[in-house]
Specification:
By secondary structure, the protein is α+β, with helices and mostly antiparallel strands. The chain has 3 domains: 3-140, GAF domain (Beta-Lactamase), CATH 3.30.450; 146-287, Alpha-Beta Plaits (2-Layer Sandwich), CATH 3.30.70.100; 293-385. The protein is 48% helix and 16% strand. It is built from 16 helices and 10 strands. The strands form 2 sheets. A 5-stranded antiparallel β-sheet has the order 2-1-5-4-3, sandwiched between helices. The chain has a 5-stranded mixed β-sheet with strand order 7-8-6-9-10, sandwiched between helices. Strand 1 (30-34) and strand 2 (39-42) form a beta hairpin. The longest helix has 22 residues, at 364-385. The chain is elongated and about 90 Å long.
Length: 386
């Protein structure tokens, strides 16, 4: 037993400190890879090795190399040595585990540092020490929990589709599951804690994740328990957006950002408890944050833009009148209820709008264009005043 190195290790609190210490005793170039195959730390090599160089430059280890190693680990070996990756240079893979899979320690064999001269007791101790550091880091605590899969999606941690597909299989993710995003922008700290407990006790869910000002609830299927979730939202004065199915997981962080912006807009401009992404899918590209105000303006019908500008100038409410009238299948009663006015007032406003701006409400296609523009004009107004 090497007492000297173990005493020095007592002063190592980070992965970098640990690897720098052990590089004095293990001369082989070393790489530590996390469960997402990202390189957390590595030491330099003197020899030219294209595979090693490519991995360290990209910061992501090859999924193919991990697959080869995992296949060799089927016999439950403590470590595996592979010579099939790069000619004349073997690699040693050591799994970093602590109840759950945390990553890999990979050593490269060189002419002046072969695996035959390696101290395997020191290597075993190093692997255990690495596992403690990784396990104790906050973002590694729940790797066995499917929540870590969704957190990695939100943080854009899966750098390739191959890695993502491997993780989908590893976590046994149901690709037909639905999602509801609940805004916490108006909730207190106490409500946040209570909400998570309430959701877990009431609903059958895959994962519940607090992220920024929202809570993401991933269900086990694509069926929303409408009455249960509505009761929770009403009780806690919250607003939510329901997504029936996530179609593309690889770009989920971009998709989520658009959904979160849409929810924020809906929460500020309307008074519903729950909204459905299907009703707003056509507008989602404008909520990605990639479009400037002038670009959004280009997509707005000129008549709707004129009505909006006149509303601002004259302090009228024609845009909202059109929004509720066209948004609820031209129902005068619903529009009147939403606007807190008499249906005859709605009818009169529509007549004046038709006359002044030459709008025919009998054209179904044109009505859809008007309604699309109204959503964008409301978002345009929301962005200006945000």
């Amino acid at each position: 037993m090497n007492i000297e190195i173990y005493k020095k290790e007592e002063n190592c609190y980070t992965l970098k400190e640990l690897l720098e210490l052990y590089s004095n005793y293990i001369k082989n170039p070393m790489v530590v890879i996390n469960h997402n195959y990202e390189l957390l730390y590595y030491t330099q090599t003197n020899d030219v090795d294209n595979v090693y160089k490519e991995a360290t430059n990209s910061g992501v280890w090859s999924l193919e190399l991990i697959a080869i190693a995992n296949n060799a680990f089927k016999n439950n070996n403590e470590y595996v040595i592979l010579d099939s990756i790069n000619k004349n240079q073997r690699r040693l893979f050591y799994k970093i585990e602590h109840n759950i899979m945390l990553g890999y320690l990979v050593l490269l064999e060189e002419d002046n540092s072969t695996f035959n001269s390696l101290d395997y007791d020191i290597l075993r101790h190093l692997a255990n020490s690495i596992s403690k550091i990784l396990y104790l880091e906050d973002y590694k605590k729940n790797d066995a929990n499917i929540q870590s899969f969704y957190k990695a999606l939100l943080n854009d941690e899966y750098k390739t589709k191959d890695i993502l597909n491997a993780k989908i299989k590893e976590y046994n993710v149901n690709l037909n599951s639905s999602l509801i995003i609940i805004s916490l922008s108006n909730a207190s700290f106490i409500q946040n804690n209570y909400l998570k407990i309430k959701l877990e006790n009431t609903l059958s869910v895959n994962a519940i994740i607090a992220y920024n000002d929202n809570v993401l609830v991933f269900f086990n299927n694509d069926k929303l328990p409408t009455s249960k979730i509505t009761d929770i939202l009403i009780d806690n004065h919250l607003t939510a957006l329901y997504v029936k199915k996530i179609s593309e997981y690889f770009s989920f962080n971009t998709y989520y950002a658009a959904l979160a912006n849409l929810l924020s807009f809906l929460e500020a401009s309307n008074k519903n408890v729950i909204y459905y992404e299907d009703d707003y899918k056509i507008y989602l590209p404008f909520f990605t944050g990639k479009h400037s105000l002038n670009e959004i303006k280009n997509y707005i019908n000129s008549k709707i833009m004129q009505i909006y500008e006149d509303d601002i100038k004259n302090e009228t409410d024609n845009i909202d009148t059109l929004y509720y009238y066209l948004g609820f299948d031209k129902s005068l009663n619903i529009a009147a209820t939403k606007l807190y006015i008499h249906r005859n007032t709605v009818s009169y406003r529509l007549m004046k709008i038709s006359e002044i701006y030459n709008i025919n409400f009998n054209d179904l296609i044109q009505n859809k264009i008007y309604f699309f523009s109204i959503i964008l004009i409301k978002y345009y107004h929301y962005k200006i005043n945000k």
